[in-house]
Specification:
Elements lengths: L6 H16 L3 H16 L6 H19 L1 H6 L6 H10 L3 H15 L8 H11 L9 H14 L5 H11 L10
Length: 175
Protein backbone atom coordinates (compact mmCIF):
# COMPACT_ATOMS: atom_id res chain seq x y z
CA UNK A 1 0.00 0.00 0.00
CA UNK A 2 2.87 2.40 0.82
CA UNK A 3 4.31 2.07 -2.70
CA UNK A 4 0.93 2.79 -4.33
CA UNK A 5 0.54 5.94 -2.23
CA UNK A 6 4.01 7.12 -3.16
CA UNK A 7 5.38 6.93 0.38
CA UNK A 8 8.40 4.83 -0.65
CA UNK A 9 9.23 7.28 -3.45
CA UNK A 10 8.87 10.21 -1.04
CA UNK A 11 11.21 8.55 1.45
CA UNK A 12 13.80 7.93 -1.26
CA UNK A 13 13.60 11.53 -2.48
CA UNK A 14 14.06 12.75 1.08
CA UNK A 15 17.11 10.53 1.57
CA UNK A 16 18.63 11.83 -1.68
CA UNK A 17 17.98 15.44 -0.64
CA UNK A 18 19.76 14.99 2.69
CA UNK A 19 22.61 13.02 1.08
CA UNK A 20 23.23 15.93 -1.30
CA UNK A 21 23.28 18.37 1.62
CA UNK A 22 26.25 16.46 3.02
CA UNK A 23 28.21 16.76 -0.23
CA UNK A 24 30.82 19.47 -0.45
CA UNK A 25 29.54 22.57 -2.23
CA UNK A 26 32.04 25.38 -2.88
CA UNK A 27 29.21 27.92 -3.26
CA UNK A 28 27.78 26.97 0.14
CA UNK A 29 31.28 27.30 1.62
CA UNK A 30 31.67 30.73 -0.01
CA UNK A 31 28.33 31.80 1.47
CA UNK A 32 29.23 30.53 4.96
CA UNK A 33 32.56 32.33 4.76
CA UNK A 34 30.94 35.63 3.76
CA UNK A 35 28.29 35.40 6.48
CA UNK A 36 30.91 34.67 9.16
CA UNK A 37 33.11 37.54 8.02
CA UNK A 38 30.19 39.94 7.81
CA UNK A 39 29.08 39.02 11.34
CA UNK A 40 32.58 39.11 12.85
CA UNK A 41 34.09 42.10 11.02
CA UNK A 42 31.16 43.95 9.48
CA UNK A 43 29.95 44.46 5.94
CA UNK A 44 32.73 46.94 5.16
CA UNK A 45 35.32 44.19 5.66
CA UNK A 46 34.14 42.53 2.44
CA UNK A 47 35.56 43.39 -0.98
CA UNK A 48 33.33 45.22 -3.46
CA UNK A 49 32.63 41.95 -5.33
CA UNK A 50 31.88 40.12 -2.08
CA UNK A 51 29.50 42.90 -1.02
CA UNK A 52 27.59 42.58 -4.28
CA UNK A 53 27.40 38.79 -4.08
CA UNK A 54 26.42 38.92 -0.40
CA UNK A 55 23.82 41.69 -0.61
CA UNK A 56 22.06 40.34 -3.71
CA UNK A 57 21.95 36.86 -2.16
CA UNK A 58 20.51 38.28 1.06
CA UNK A 59 17.92 40.19 -0.95
CA UNK A 60 16.93 37.13 -2.96
CA UNK A 61 16.67 34.89 0.10
CA UNK A 62 14.58 37.41 2.03
CA UNK A 63 12.18 38.03 -0.83
CA UNK A 64 11.79 34.32 -1.56
CA UNK A 65 11.21 33.68 2.14
CA UNK A 66 8.67 36.40 2.85
CA UNK A 67 8.40 38.96 0.10
CA UNK A 68 9.69 42.45 -0.59
CA UNK A 69 8.24 43.82 2.64
CA UNK A 70 10.29 41.26 4.61
CA UNK A 71 13.45 42.45 2.85
CA UNK A 72 12.76 46.04 3.90
CA UNK A 73 11.50 45.20 7.40
CA UNK A 74 14.52 43.08 8.35
CA UNK A 75 18.13 44.23 8.68
CA UNK A 76 18.62 43.06 5.09
CA UNK A 77 17.02 46.34 4.01
CA UNK A 78 20.22 48.05 5.17
CA UNK A 79 21.76 46.75 1.93
CA UNK A 80 19.22 48.39 -0.40
CA UNK A 81 21.81 50.62 -2.14
CA UNK A 82 24.22 47.70 -2.57
CA UNK A 83 21.45 45.49 -3.94
CA UNK A 84 20.52 48.18 -6.46
CA UNK A 85 24.16 48.45 -7.53
CA UNK A 86 24.51 44.66 -7.67
CA UNK A 87 21.37 44.10 -9.73
CA UNK A 88 22.54 46.79 -12.16
CA UNK A 89 25.96 45.17 -12.44
CA UNK A 90 24.42 41.72 -12.95
CA UNK A 91 22.05 43.14 -15.60
CA UNK A 92 19.13 41.76 -13.60
CA UNK A 93 16.80 44.38 -15.03
CA UNK A 94 13.52 42.74 -14.06
CA UNK A 95 14.54 42.16 -10.45
CA UNK A 96 15.84 45.72 -10.28
CA UNK A 97 12.57 47.12 -11.60
CA UNK A 98 10.52 45.04 -9.13
CA UNK A 99 12.69 46.13 -6.20
CA UNK A 100 12.35 49.78 -7.16
CA UNK A 101 8.57 49.40 -7.55
CA UNK A 102 8.33 47.85 -4.09
CA UNK A 103 10.45 50.64 -2.60
CA UNK A 104 8.22 53.26 -4.20
CA UNK A 105 5.08 51.61 -2.81
CA UNK A 106 6.53 51.45 0.68
CA UNK A 107 8.59 54.66 0.86
CA UNK A 108 7.22 56.94 -1.82
CA UNK A 109 9.75 59.09 -3.62
CA UNK A 110 12.46 58.81 -0.96
CA UNK A 111 15.03 56.03 -0.87
CA UNK A 112 14.51 53.53 1.92
CA UNK A 113 16.49 54.64 4.98
CA UNK A 114 19.65 52.61 5.61
CA UNK A 115 18.94 52.63 9.35
CA UNK A 116 16.50 49.88 10.26
CA UNK A 117 14.60 51.82 12.93
CA UNK A 118 14.09 54.72 10.51
CA UNK A 119 12.84 52.23 7.89
CA UNK A 120 10.39 50.79 10.42
CA UNK A 121 9.11 54.27 11.19
CA UNK A 122 8.73 55.06 7.49
CA UNK A 123 6.98 51.74 6.87
CA UNK A 124 4.53 52.35 9.69
CA UNK A 125 3.82 55.90 8.52
CA UNK A 126 3.39 54.77 4.93
CA UNK A 127 0.53 52.38 5.35
CA UNK A 128 -2.76 54.17 4.86
CA UNK A 129 -4.60 51.55 6.84
CA UNK A 130 -2.62 49.31 9.16
CA UNK A 131 -5.91 48.11 10.60
CA UNK A 132 -7.24 47.10 7.21
CA UNK A 133 -7.08 43.38 6.44
CA UNK A 134 -6.08 43.97 2.82
CA UNK A 135 -4.63 47.44 2.23
CA UNK A 136 -3.93 48.50 -1.37
CA UNK A 137 -0.17 48.61 -0.84
CA UNK A 138 -0.21 45.00 0.36
CA UNK A 139 -2.05 43.87 -2.77
CA UNK A 140 0.45 45.72 -4.96
CA UNK A 141 3.41 44.17 -3.14
CA UNK A 142 1.88 40.73 -3.54
CA UNK A 143 1.72 41.26 -7.31
CA UNK A 144 5.37 42.34 -7.33
CA UNK A 145 6.36 39.34 -5.19
CA UNK A 146 4.56 36.96 -7.52
CA UNK A 147 6.39 38.41 -10.53
CA UNK A 148 9.68 38.10 -8.65
CA UNK A 149 9.01 34.46 -7.76
CA UNK A 150 9.00 33.58 -11.46
CA UNK A 151 12.74 34.44 -11.36
CA UNK A 152 12.64 36.59 -14.50
CA UNK A 153 16.40 37.17 -14.50
CA UNK A 154 17.59 33.70 -13.44
CA UNK A 155 19.29 35.49 -10.56
CA UNK A 156 20.92 32.36 -9.16
CA UNK A 157 22.65 31.74 -12.49
CA UNK A 158 23.78 35.35 -12.69
CA UNK A 159 25.22 35.16 -9.17
CA UNK A 160 26.98 31.88 -9.94
CA UNK A 161 28.60 33.41 -13.04
CA UNK A 162 29.52 36.52 -11.07
CA UNK A 163 31.22 34.43 -8.37
CA UNK A 164 33.13 32.49 -11.03
CA UNK A 165 34.22 35.51 -13.07
CA UNK A 166 35.37 37.44 -9.99
CA UNK A 167 37.19 34.49 -8.41
CA UNK A 168 35.01 34.45 -5.32
CA UNK A 169 34.37 30.72 -5.39
CA UNK A 170 37.85 29.65 -6.53
CA UNK A 171 39.38 29.40 -3.01
CA UNK A 172 36.61 26.98 -2.04
CA UNK A 173 36.92 24.60 -4.96
CA UNK A 174 38.61 21.29 -4.32
CA UNK A 175 41.01 20.01 -6.95
Amino acid sequence: MACKQGVRESIEKSKEYYRKLKEYDPYRELWISLVKREIENGFDSLTKEEKIYFSVNVFDREVCNGGMDQFFWNSSGNFYAEVIEGLQLLNAENSLLLLKQAAKILFGEINPPKDRSLRWQALKEHSESLDSTNPDWSNELEKIDNKYYTDPDSLDELLTKFAEINGLVQPFKKS
